[in-house]
Structure formats: structure tokens, C-alpha cells
Amino acid sequence: MYLYPVRVFNDPFRRGNNKLVLCDVYKYNLKPAETNNRFSCAKVMELVANHHPWFGIEQEYTLQDFDGYPFGWPKNGYPGPQGPYYCGVGANRVYGRDIVEAHYRACLYAGVKISGCNAEVMPAQWEFQVGPCEGIEMGDHLWISRYILHRVAEDFGLVVTLDPKPMTGDWNGAGAHTNFSTIEMRQDDGLQHIEKAIEKMSLHHEEHIKAYDPNKGKDNERRLTGLHETSSIHDFSAGVANRGASIRIPRQVAEDGKGLPCLGVQIIDPWVDIIPPLPLSLSNSLSDLLLFFFFFLNKAQTPFCISFVKIFAMAQNRTYLSETNKGLLAYYMSLPQEKDTIMCEYIWVDIDGDGLRSKCRTLNYIPQTASDCPSWDFGAITDFSTRAITDLHLEPAMLFNDPFRRGNNKLLLCDVYDNTGKPVAANRRNSCAEVMKLVKDEDPWFGIEQEYALLDSDGYPFGWPKNGFPKPQGPYHCGVGCNKALGRDVVEAHYRACLYAGVKICGCNAEAMPAQWEFQIGPCEGIEAADQLWIARYILNRVSEDFGIVITLDPKPISGDWNGAGAHTNFSTAAMREDGGLKIIEEAVEKLRKKHKEHIMVYDPSEGKDNARRLTGLHETSNIDDFSAGVENRYASIRIPRRVARNRKGYFEDRRPASNCDPYSVLEALCKTVLLE
């Protein structure tokens, strides 16, 4: 067999001037080998070059241990059902992010046109996107990105599988959804060209199915069942925003009447292990190391001689250990990144009101504000909507620096809207913003004290004895020492990461219950306080994910004689901060007294049920059924600090919001009651 070079990439493993070379394979008689589908694809692309076909492929895959079981899954059972993992964040939702981050950075360095990545529906399942690419370039870039993925996973001691259904049962399979458009589809009236293309594909469904996996459809048959966001392998279907169809027309394309780059049609049938050109031709040391990462950046590089690489599989008796591989991740993250090529993490609030989801996108410029970033969409498999309406839109709201990828990379907080342009039920930012416009002249300031607890993967507080309890509360609040402060490394890393991101974090301390901590956000004006808190929560979950620790915002994570967790909200207006402002504060307290029940309903995601476990009148809380207020009274609903009472101006503290509250709802309720009633 002979290897003929077809495309050159930079080598992210050896670096320097070293290269990766993708090759065609030919037999001794100089005819293409049976597996060389690139040859026939290239000929087709020459014939259709004047149509300028563009492609984008969404490559799904699963990370496995060497025993063939998904990485991070319990060895004698299964993780919780699907739902929280898609675009998830946190050590109990995301398995193997280090590999994903290293792969992304390695692809950018290599020159691969990688355009995004996200966690998928099944735990330990991920996706990266390549494109838009024109013609044969698409297959070339996907193949080399697969090679890089396997090489990265090899370094981390994990196995990558492209099996379309690695786990039987109620688990999503893995596809290689292929987005396709021509110049005609991308122009005005392009939708009619898309519809004609769909009609043509409907006539060749069986032929495509045979070409969409190496076993002529037998592999894909396990995935394309009509369940788990797939069509039935036996039936051809198409629809707008329908992820259960063979061909999906994105809603934006249907509305615009034409296909934007790589948004013409999405071919959902191809199996994850397709040969890309074929479908195209048819269409403690751990803590120290982690803290080092958050305070410094490893710039180590190792020179190698130039060489070309032959790919082959090796069995190794290794397992993935985060304790030994954070240095490896730092090595990949130190790969030089083009100045104007950045990774932008789109972040949005989940349907449950106390969680977050995110996915990454490549931008070829450096955004300065959120408005510089493009809108995006995502599949509504997070219970935001019914199966029939599966595309939701992400609208940029606030931009931050990325403390994990650093450089020019960004974190982007987003609003979520449905296909009609209306905010989804979980998008409480929209109504909060409207209220803030009405009260802008009052100059409302907020400061929020976010309490949380650190948990081991078994759900028990970090550092607690597994067969019992620590000593009673007392020495832990603002404590110091390894027998009093449990998990400080996470807290320190989070604080530094927030400062780097541009979050207005203003303090932190250990709380009353061991393994319970608090950070404070503010003072911020208007809706900014809630934006800053949501991003601070995201950063907290990402940091703890790196440390292998779970964050809980449960208002009462441990029953018994232990403090719960709140989000005490400090509030003032310009009038309250001026001389004689205490009178305005007292008037506000009386307004809040009359709306006590209404506020309790919006101070946790479960309309007061979560908070009922915390607001018992014990452990520095008021009783949920009674409204109270007082100077320096931490058992009151509303606390007026002694300094405020003495100066007769300042702010008050609403101690009722639960730790898992939606801050947009809290801020909106306070402003409506105090300023608009």
C-alpha cells in the first residue's frame, strides 16, 4: 500500500515545526484502496464545485474506561437518568471535560476548523462540531480531528468509542449530524432549493442508509429507532426544528427562507462512525496542582524532531486519574492560540431555576461586549419545551473573561427564547429587566450573599466522617485550620477565577456548618447583580468539577442541628442611602410585610417548599409563616444592620431568599413591592 499526502496540519503533540499529514491510501497498482472513499468523494466535489457545497458535521462520541464501560459511571450500576447531563456543568453532571478541553485546544492549534463542543445527553457522551467547510475539506478536517481526539484520550488513559449505541436501554446513541447547504440554498428564496433537495433524498433513503455506516446500515439500526431524538431507520421524514426527523430544517432557516452557512439542512441519519467522504459524496497533589493552575499558567513546551505518524491501537492497563492529569491538561491548554480565534462559552439558566447549562463556540474575532456575539440555538431536550418544539434560541446578555481557557476566550451569559421570540418560562431575566427599567431613577443597589455546601460524589458533605458526623456547630464559622475549614482550595480557586472573569465578587467566608461556605456579590446596580451571581455560580461549579467535588445549593442539605443555606439579599435605593434614609427603609419593610407570602413563593424554585425546610425559626432563620424585622436580628425576615440604624441611612437585608433562588425573581419582587406598589 502507498500513502499519498493530501492535507497538512500543525502537530499539537510535538509542536514546533512538526506536522500531521493526512494521506490517501493506494494499492500496489496505484488504484485507490477499497477503504479510500476520499478518492470518489473528491471526484464528485469537482463536478459540483460551482454549487459551492458547504458542510458542518456534529461528531458525537463516548468516553470509556479500559473495561469498555462509560467513564465516570458506577461500576456496579448506572448513573441517574438522562436529563441533567446535556450541556451540563458540575462534577455530578459532567464526566471527562479535561479530554474535551484538551482536544479543542489541540484542534485549534492544528488548524482544524473546529467550531464548537458540548456535553451530550448521555453522561460521558460529548460532541464537537467541525465546519463550515467547503467540499472535500470537511471530510479531511473531521478525520484529523478524530485522530487528535484519540491521541488526546490516549494521553489521559481513556478510550474513545464512536459506537452509535454504546449502551443499550434508555440512553441516547451517537450520531454525526451533517449540515449541508449550497450557494443556491444560502441565497434569497433558498428554502425552495432546500425543499427540492429533501425530495431528492427521500427517493434515495435506502441508499443513504447503506452508506451512512461501515456495515451498510446494520450499525445504525441500533440507533435509528424513532426514540432518543432519532428517526426510524425504515422511514424517511423531514420537518422544521424536528430532531426526530431524518432531515431537520432549523427554525431560523425556515423563518429566513434560506440556509445560512451550514444551516441549510441537517442530515440526522448518518451514524457516528461514518467515513466522512462517503456521505458527502452522496450529500492533595491534586489540590496543589489545581491551585497552581488557577494562579499561574503552565507554559511548558517540549521540542521533538519532525516525523510523520502511523495510527494504530494499543491496549494499556491505565485508568483516567484526575490527580495525575491536571498537569497534562495544562500542557494542552498552553498550546498557542491564534489571537483572533477564540472559544466562547454560551451559558444559560436551566429549567429547574437553580442549574446552568453551557456549550462552546469558536469565534474568529474578539468580542468586546455581549452584543458583539452572535445569537445561537440549542436542542430543547432539557424540558424547556415539548418534543414538537425542539429549537430554542440563545440571546447574548453579558460577557465575561474565561478563567479556565484564559487568553482572549470568553464566558457569555444568555437569555433563552422560544421559536416565537418569547422568553421561555425559565427566563426570568426578561421580566426582571423590564422592572429595572421602570425603577432606574431610584438607583437600586443589591448585594447577594451566596451560601453553598461542598459534597463528595456520594452526596455526603466533603470532609465529614463517612460513618458519622463532625463535632457540633460552633468552631467552623469563619474558621481556620484543617479541622475547621473543609475545602478551602475550592473557595480560593473560585475567588481568583471570579476576579479574573470580571465578576464583582466582594468577599467569602466559611459558614456555620462544616463544608459550607459563602461568597458575596456586589454592590451592583439593577439586574447586573443577578447576572453576576449566575456567572459566579457557573464558575463555582466548573472549579469544583476540576476538584472532583459537587456543589449543592440545597437550602437544607443536611437535616438536624445544622444550618441551612440562604442567599441573603441586601437592598438599597438612592433615597435610603441619603441622610434620613432610615425612614424610607422602614416604609419599605412595611410594604414587604404585606407581601410576605408572595415573596416566599418566588424565593426558591419550588414556590416555598424548599425554603420551608430552612426557615424554621432556628439556625439563624425566621419562621416561614411569619414576617418579622429588627435591628441586627438574624432571626428576622428583614435585618437592619446596627450601623444603618445608628447612621439612620443605608440598606436592609432580606434573609428569606433560599440559596437556590433565582436572583432575577428576588430582585424583581423586591423592586416591585418596594418601589412600584
UniProtKB/TrEMBL annotation:
Family of the protein in this entry: Belongs to the glutamine synthetase family.
Species of provenance: Acanthosepion pharaonis (Pharaoh cuttlefish)
GO molecular function: ATP binding; glutamine synthetase activity
Enzyme Commission number, as recorded: 6.3.1.2
The name this protein goes by in its record: glutamine synthetase
Compartments, as annotated in UniProt: Cytoplasm
Top-level class of the enzyme under EC nomenclature: ligase
One GO biological process term: glutamine biosynthetic process
Pfam assignment, any one: Gln-synt_C
Keywords, comma-separated and alphabetical: ATP-binding, Cytoplasm, Ligase, Nucleotide-binding
Stretches assigned to the GS catalytic domain: 37-258, 428-677
